[in-house]
Amino acid sequence: MSSDVDRLLDEHDATGVANAVRSGEVDATEVVVAAISRAQERNPALNAFVSTRFDQALDEAEAVNRAAPFAGVPFVVKDLAVQVAGLPHTRGSRLFADDVADADSELVRRYRAAGLIILGTTNTPELGRNASTEPLLNGPTRNPHGLDHSTGGSSGGTAAAVASGIVSVGHGNDGGGSIRIPASACGLFGLKPSRGRVSGHPDYALVAYPMGVHHVLSRSVRDSAALLDLTAGPMPGDAYEIAPPQRPWIDAVGADPGRLRIAMALSPADGTEAHPECVAAVESAAAALGDLGHEVVEADPPWTSDLILEVLSGLMGAPMAVEIDARLAELGRDLVDDDLEPFTRFLYDSALHASARDIVSAMVGLEALGRAMGEFLTTYDLLLTPTLPQPMPPLGYLDTTNVEAMFERAATSSALTSPFNITGQPAVSLPLATGSNGIPIGVQLAAAFGREDRLFSVSAQVEAAHPWSIAPVWPARSEAGWPSYVESHAHRTMHEA
After folding, report:
1. Domain containing 168: what range?
2. Which one of the listed residues 150, 154, 155, 168 is annotated catalytic?
3. Does the annotation count 154 as an active-site position?
4. 225 near 218, Cβ under 8 Å?
5. CATH number, position 342
6. Catalytic pick from 93, 150, 178, 220?
7. Torsions phi, psi of 191, nearest 5?
8. How far, in Å, are 17, 35, 320, 336, 346 from residue 351 at the CA level?
9. Which of 51, 78, 414, 418 is catalytic?
């Protein structure tokens, strides 16, 4: 039977696995046993997990409600901004290494109610402040497409677990590209929903940290849509409520979106050139969208690099500093050198010097860009861009111990994803290309605020016309070259900027 279960996990998405459990074709316990076996076999090479709860997962599989939408489907939760009762909540930081969650976050409760079986938590860079998952606390997570390469960040541990076939779908969150960047790097579908779509209760969100939002990395469009149906919605006391969809998002999958007018932008706001392979991926996607009946036209979005930088500087450092200070107060001590990585410490120290005026100015900028992009997407239905302006680099390129290099390189990684965290609009990375080095290259679509339905409809269209593989990447590739021209191109464009 194990071979049948392995075949199920290799050939089907999470919806397919759940259907097999619900029909009685397989038992949930068999599925979870197989997933645990895969984790034990594959994680040593990948370093995707930071904590596990295999015994509890087996108990939950035995007692699962087979009528639940995702009954018996193995799942992972990112170790950042979401808590799983009884597991460490390290946030990838030595400062929080011994912090253990005493209760589930609301989102985890919703995952459990959907029938998902949580195997453990996954690796993340320190406090999510890196586009590559290689924290000093837990070590680097490796990309199954090339073990010398980054999985992206900050949901890199989840991306590795999904791409390698340990699980079919897993939790991530996105404050500057942290779902879409790993999705691009690992050949997955990754949606960042609209601001406020998924409650972060009980962690602070929306007002305190308006750019972050939760969802999943998946192999298929339908898994993402179905899980958003099951997890979206506010909690009492949330700062505001976003209007629910007019119909379930799963109904948008396979629905005709009509003929859409799609803007295409090939460069970040600072005008630097995207790498030719990333440009080629977008142009190929544009051709595919044209074949589906859509109009794709080049256009310049109303974003400026100065405004984006002002908002990011003001609104990413301050919430992090508040979290660090609260932890120090809990521990009853001052910060010491080994608590934080050098780049995180620099961001923390910088945030301490930010004034109330700086924070309000950043909030004004956030609102201004949101309005400008909102107006832009009354003329166009979607915006098409590369997910990343350059192919995902090898591990060590985004090195948080080298503060100067991080400033030079990190902003480039999120240059095309972070604007939509500022505007609050939904955006998705589609796994439509592979670089010459064998590492996937994603293509990004963004929609107007609240229009996840349009993203699901168009993404499903593309998925049907140009299917991507949902098969796990295993055995992992031991290496994948990173041509020197990528780095030289990156340095050239950044220095020219």
Report:
1. 2-496
2. 154
3. yes
4. no
5. 3.90.1300.10
6. 178
7. -105, 130
8. 46, 42, 8, 17, 9
9. 78
